């Protein structure tokens, strides 16, 4: 019983930290304080998007990725990708069941499939790569998925974005025309329509570019020795980037707290949608993780090392990524609803991060 209580306290600490910073953001957004109003949140979000997040991902990826680590932990990026894909499918199921407003569909899918940035409490050696790869997936897969699903024009990033929207439901005329052609022709038309409306250049966000640079630095040994490490001649570059990147999570959390004020006053997020996200995130996704990781172990795809298996399992049981707040703020759609979902998700994270890790430790022991 005492061990369970200690585990609950340990798992609650990072969650309480997030909630405390969120409350500070909420306070700063109050009308009487007005330090984090709509304009301030927009400008801070731009800094997070262009500076903080690329620095965070770049520093962690360059430091953690080597050729040897990729060979040893080759299954981890695949496992992470599976969490995103399964989460996306669960998000679609939530959408089909709860029928939320169209502009919130991307948010719901994103909340179901995005890994967090604060899961490094569970083993720095393995999780450094996990966090870095998770951030890359967030700013490629999740970012573009939410961008495509958003029905609102992207007004905050005119320099890198356009209001490319892909309708989720065809018009009546299109449906009548589709019935006149075969299934294969309909599929080809849909693919052509998607390729015309989706700007592939948006895949290369500042964070994605930073990840590519970091991979080059980490995998090329002479360059790595020049920049990474305490005795590296240019180690000050890594230290500076790391220092800037450390501001990403606090800044993003403040933005979510500021947006929460509007969400508490009025939110378009249905209660059923919030419950659906929580069930998908904290029940169905961890169950899927157990099946995948244990199946991979039975097939000799991963080693029997308990800590490695534990980290792979944890990836399925953590709350949604704080970066979702940045993404919704960029798109100008669902900011307050995102904050409401995050409040519930992180409020219940202590229970999830106590129950599931306890079960996982028993499973891999």
TrEMBL record:
Alphabetic keyword roster: Auxin signaling pathway, Endoplasmic reticulum, Membrane, Transmembrane, Transmembrane helix, Transport
Family per similarity comment: Belongs to the auxin efflux carrier (TC 2.A.69.2) family.
Function in brief: Involved in cellular auxin homeostasis by regulating auxin metabolism. Regulates intracellular auxin accumulation at the endoplasmic reticulum and thus auxin availability for nuclear auxin signaling.
Membrane-spanning parts: 15-36, 74-97, 198-220, 240-261, 273-295, 307-331, 343-364
The protein's name in its UniProt record: Auxin efflux carrier family protein
Membrane topology (UniProt): Multi-pass membrane protein
InterPro entries cross-referenced by the UniProt entry: Mem_transp_PIN-like (IPR004776), PILS1/3/4/5/7 (IPR045033)
Cellular component GO terms held in the UniProt record: endoplasmic reticulum membrane
Keyword Ribonucleoprotein annotated: no
PANTHER family the UniProt entry points to: PROTEIN PIN-LIKES 4, PTHR31651
Locations listed in the record: Endoplasmic reticulum membrane
UniProt KW Membrane keyword: yes
Main location: endoplasmic reticulum
Pfam families given in the database record: Mem_trans
Biological process per Gene Ontology, one example term: endoplasmic reticulum to cytosol auxin transport
